[in-house]
Write a structure and sequence with these properties.
Belongs to the adrenodoxin/putidaredoxin family. Its cofactor is [2Fe-2S] cluster. Keywords: 2Fe-2S, Iron, Iron-sulfur, Metal-binding. The chain is α+β, with helices and mostly antiparallel strands. The protein has a single domain, classed as Beta-grasp domain (Ubiquitin-like (UB roll)). The protein contains three helices and five strands; from the N terminus they run ββαβαββα. Strand 1 and strand 2 form a beta hairpin. The longest helix is centred in the C-terminal third of the chain and has 16 residues. The structure holds FE2/S2 (inorganic) cluster (FES). FE2/S2 (inorganic) cluster (FES) binds next to loops.
């Protein structure tokens, strides 16, 4: 059986086999998710926000322990969470892009005209 995963904010979709990790689905969809540990649940760089109504396989004890309560806020590790049906996830901004966006926002605040 297959499952459809949609990655936001790009809206890219991919159809994968049930049981595929979100990280593998992202790779197939050409969605960049940074990792450092190679999918061993050690770096936390693959954290994703799973939107309500998404169908994932039950969280493992290991992932739950690593997330330390964040799973209750919809956060999952892309390298551990496995799809079980239709899934929608929000991918955080690349850290470099996020830093540039923060700097530009700060600069825009400082450059506001006084009148
Ligand atoms: S890839 Fe490192 S924690 Fe998921």
């Amino acid at each position: 059986m297959s499952a459809e995963v949609t990655f936001w904010p790009s809206g890219k979709k991919v159809t994968v086999k049930r049981g595929t990790t979100l990280l593998d689905a992202a790779r197939r969809a050409n969605v960049l998710i940074q990792t450092r540990c190679g999918g061993k649940a050690a770096c936390f760089m693959c954290k994703l926000t799973v939107l309500p109504g998404s169908e994932l396989m039950p969280i493992s004890d290991n992932e739950r322990r690593k997330l330390a309560g964040l799973d209750g806020e919809g956060i999952r590790l892309g390298c551990q969470a496995r799809v079980d049906g239709k899934v929608e996830v929000k991918v955080p901004l690349d850290p470099l892009k996020a830093a540039i966006a923060r700097q530009l926002a700060r600069q825009a605040e400082q450059d506001e005209p006084l009148w």
